[in-house]
Specification:
This protein is mainly α and 182 residues long. It has one domain. It is built from five helices and two strands; from the N terminus they run H-H-E-H-H-H-E. A two-stranded antiparallel ribbon has the order 1-2. The two termini are 31 Å apart.
Length: 182
């Protein structure tokens, strides 16, 4: 078998079990549902309390998204020593990185987050005083949750092509065209 054709197994770690992958999928769906409920509540009721609920929920989901994004990036960098990992594979689950069902669910949640943010922000483009801008615009930060959870799923459970230059996960210290230059 050619080294380029083989795929590597998922990285070992605390999140390597199948149930951990399901937890990430559920977390994405629950976060998206929470965003839908609170953003819709804020857009429909549009009271100060409702806007605070929507904004705080969006900021919490954004914070979780930033944390999971950085966590996924760290783990992807570790795997990149032995695997060929593209950004689109990591954060959009493009190709054969994830099973079709996982790819559809995770990317649908990401798309839903973008659509919810767009619809609610455009639904109330002005604040209660009539001035342009409303707290619903904070919802545009929420898709970071989808990106982070996609990346975390892929970093732990994704199947990537093995790097042809990798030797059991270790580099020989040479870098492409500069290898012969010492």
């Amino acid at each position: 078998m050619n080294d380029v054709d083989r795929t590597s197994s998922p990285a070992p770690g605390d999140l390597s079990s199948q149930s951990a992958g399901q937890i990430l999928i559920r977390l994405n769906l629950v976060g998206t549902a929470m965003f839908l409920l609170t953003a819709t509540f804020a857009a429909v009721v549009f009271s100060t309390f409702a806007q605070w609920v929507g904004a705080v929920t969006a900021l919490i989901l954004f914070a979780v998204g930033v944390f999971t994004f950085l966590w996924s990036y760290w783990n992807a960098v570790q795997r990149s020593r032995s695997d060929q990992i593209a950004v689109t594979q990591l954060y959009f689950l493009v190709g054969e990185v994830a099973p079709r069902k996982v790819r559809v669910v995770m990317n649908s949640a990401l798309l839903a987050q973008v659509l919810i943010a767009t619809v609610t922000a455009l639904g109330r483009p002005n604040g209660p005083e009539g001035r342009p801008g409303s707290s619903l615009a904070v919802g545009f930060l929420v898709p970071m949750l989808g990106f982070g959870l996609n990346g975390l799923w892929a970093a732990y459970h994704g199947r990537f092509l093995a790097r042809p230059d990798a030797k059991n996960g270790e580099s020989d210290g040479q870098i492409g065209q500069n290898a012969s230059h010492g």
